[in-house]
Amino acid sequence: MSKQESKNINLEHMRRDNKSKVLGWVRKGYYSRADLASLTGLTRPAITSIVDELISQGIIKEASNHKMVGIGVKGRTPTPLAVVPSCYVVGGVYLTRNSITVGLTDFAGVAFDKTVIPFDKDDDSLKVMEEACSILDKYVSKVGKGKLLGIGVATPGPVDRQRGVILNPPNLDKWWGLGIGEYLSKRYDTFVRVDDNSNALALAELASPDNDSVNSFSIVVDESGIGGAAVLNGELYLGAIGLASNIGHITVEVNGERCSCGNIGCAELYASAKNMVKWASQIDERFVDWKTILVLAERGEPKAIEVIEREAEYLSAIAVCAINMLGIDTVIFHGPISKSAKLMRAISDRVKKRRLTSASSIQVRGSTISEGHLRVATELVIEDFCRRGAVI
Ligand SMILES: [Zn+2]
Questions:
Q1: Last-in-domain residue among 62, 83, 104
Q2: Rounded distance, CA 269 to CA 283, Å?
């Protein structure tokens, strides 16, 4: 390769990186070109050129009649920019241990067709997939394959991301080894990205306008077990073998029970809402589910508050571990455990007392993602497209 060719490739990479940065900010809010220059550190001419290109691709537009949420950088034409939701349609598949959600969202992640199919743990995975795809077929045929940007698949981990294969998630035996990525890419002749639920949730958090000033954080997900993921400097942190942030499998009871993972006293044995209810029902027979416990705690029932305090002890241990290991100051909780403001406050108070350094910047909170599972699955595709600088 000649020097000139090598230089051209580097320039192309740089341009894609810059496009990716700009698109990332436009997705988060209604910023002007001047705001984007300030937020990305790029020059105004570079921003103008990239914005023009993204507008000509039909991916973003000027949203003149929308209220600015920009950072107040003055410019000659402080016109807010926004993504064009209708520029692409994105397929999503979100698998849990007892249901599969399939559907389509627009490029802004807003669902317009969605079905949730429940299944039993003994059901054949290929039959479930066939049923799910017969529904997805109808949705895709309505919009036309040409509009489909890709399909995001979020599944309980571990997964082989490269090959799009579900490996061996606990309590999902019938799905072990399923090459769901290849299955879908052949059927729809489109790009498919497969990742675990926690990583997909973390990417959806990163894209959320609620996180416009946070690009390093950890999430703790309570969804049949406890999972986790981390984003560092705007990038998903996967670790050396791609299994980082399995926060549910850190020890919180050194003399505790053995977990199915092989470790002793894992957090998910004690802190998942399901296992906490199991423990709580032994101290009060009214504690039949997590929701009841939360309602009774809000009413000031001492035993329900005791359960919340116990849960806060475990979850704050997890949060402090993530904060000290990763050097982050934001932890976001998902699932049933995130539904109680009282619990979030109790965790936050403990974390601030136990943190190694200054506690002033610590943020512990429940997720605000409102679009649900489908939006989380399709983010896998939208994020990938934006990260590659809007190149298919
Ligand atoms: Zn474990």
A1: 83
A2: 18
